[in-house]
Amino acid sequence: MAEAGGAPPALLAVAHGTRDPAGPAVVRALLDRVRAMRPGLRVAEAYGELSEPSLEEAAEGLRGVPVVVVPLLLARGYHALVDVPGRAGRLLPGAVTSRPLGPDALLAGALAARLAEEDRISPDRRDAVVLGAAGDAGPAGAADVRAAARLLARQLGRPVPHGFVAAGGPLLDEVVAGLRRRGARRTAVASYLLEADRFHDRMRACGADAVAAPLGAHGAAARLVLRRYDEAVLPLAIPAAAR
To answer: Apex CA 20: angle with CA 226 and CA 101, to 5°?
Structure first.
């Protein structure tokens, strides 16, 4: 699984995609950080839908090249488990798809850093923090968001419930309202999103006092992209007879 001359497999990062042109700009900034962290690694960009280049277009430039596909997604779901691996497998025979970025303690640290940028929320326990996520109708995706909330709670040393703004439950606005009824002085939402999009707009309308910026091109997210790549590459470096 290496090119002639010993070059490592290319990294094809596949984001969900959005109609907002700011979304691809965030992905490109993130991948620029990845390239800076791993000089010499070929890093390509693609989107599952809505943005360009599509997965199909990006695959055209990687024909005959060993590829590791890294879904820039924060939880398991249809796109991470079925759509991206299936399309990549058809387009790039032999390509390996890594698991999605989240949940992971690196992301919890990045979420805490984004929350710290909000000056209206203090470490006082009377201020509440909620993990806001887009939502996933599947049980695996919901379990991953619950795990992400637990990791953030451990990072912050306080309870962190979670809420969704799309599929699934509990609904974010109901979680925020419930915290207020139970005496929270202020409430902040940690945005479990890679980029600002319609889901972030919904979070901003949930009634919280503050909504942190999405993860974006945070250095921890870039390190995690490389971790997922390395996890996928490692088994390929082990001779088949030794597996």
So the answer is: 20
Tell me which amino acid residue 7 is.
A
Closest to 236 measured CA to CA, from 143, 48, 122, 98: 98
DSSP collapsed to 3 states, 115-166: HHCCCCCCCCCCEEEEEEECCCCCHHHHHHHHHHHHHHHHHHCCCCCEEECC
Single-letter code of the amino acid located at 101? L
Closest by Cα among 61, 25, 56 to 194 = 25
The tokens describing 66, both together, are: 């060993």
pLDDT higher than threshold 60 for residue 4: no
Residue type, 181: R
- Alpha carbon 157 to its chain's center: 23
The 10s digit of each residue's pLDDT in 171-226 is 999 999 999 999 999 999 999 999 988 999 999 999 999 999 999 999 999 999 99
Would you mind telling me the total number of residues written for the chain in this entry? 243
